[in-house]
Amino acid sequence: MIKVNFKDIQQAEKRLSPLIAKTSLSQSDHLSKKLSCHVFLKWEIEQKIKSFKIRGALNKIFSLTEEEKARGLIAASAGNHAQGVALAGQLLNIKARVVMMETASKVKVSATKDLGAEVILKGKNYDESYSYAQSIKGDSIFIHPFADSEVIAGQGTVGLEIVKDLAQVDSVIVSVGGGGLLLGIALAVKTLKPSAKVYGVVWEGTADFCRSFNNITAKEKCLCQKDIPLQHSKSGLTDGIAVKKSFPEMVQNSSQYVDGVFCVSEGEISQCIMELKKIEKKQAEGSGVAGLAGLLKYHKQWDIGRNCCVVISGANIDEEVLSQLRQKYLGDYTYRV
Hints:
By secondary structure, the chain is of the alpha/beta class. The chain has a 6-stranded mixed beta sheet, sandwiched between helices. The protein has 14 helices and 10 strands. It has helices spanning about 5-15, 30-35, 55-60, 65-70, 80-90, 105-115, 125-135, 150-165, 180-190, 210-215, 250-255, 265-280, 285-300, 320-330, and strands spanning about 25, 40-45, 75, 95-100, 120, 140, 170-175, 195-205, 260-265, 305-310. The chain is globular, with a radius of gyration of 18 Å. Helix 1 (about 5-15) crosses helix 8.
């Protein structure tokens, strides 16, 4: 059962602060001018593993007993959660195994191995990797990437930092895969600033979270309400948020705090990667910029207020994917950011 409250997030912050980065939040002059408001970017790419995932994984592992830690860890991941579990295991001297997709990013696989975890490549998608990890876990403790109370509390510390650094925040936009980051941030932000709006953004190829959320809340503002077939990203661009089937409990809990969940295309995400590099001189991955793609697509539809914050959640992207994007971007797209 997933049960998280604000005190859990505060406790997570105390546990994590000595070991992780308090990432920066900066205003984008270009985006602020374009959208006629103050747009701030929360740079979770500044974590050691270039992703927010260390927060949830480390908080979960801190919660284990010594007997549980001795049994070792196992996880399934598209990549960033793998690095979070690997780094947490390294910091706390716990053996970790991670099952990753056979098509997982080379950058993420290499980084996970470098952090000391055993990497097992199995499955064509996250769901198959998850099933295989469950079949071989034995006595090891499974660290779920999102559907876990301690993991969600750890991710929620991003929300605490946002409100501390931007007390007058009016809206927060978050990329969504399984929904752990969205739920954690929404709980923290809504507790500290109830008037603030929180929006989630999914990739339309795996839009089940969006459909389920809209069904629960009776919202019909998003393309996801239409019958978009589930897809697999051939480029690997969106693997970090490509969760095929949403967890009902995650969607139900999120519906208490989140103001809307919307979807974007892979093309819209790829444009954001390239333009973020051009404008902010920083590199992000597809799953890391879905929230920004959503802001650009839906800002007229959302109530974003004067101070809007977008979480840039990850930066682990293969050079060959970047090379393909550069060619496609320069050949097919006009600037939109």
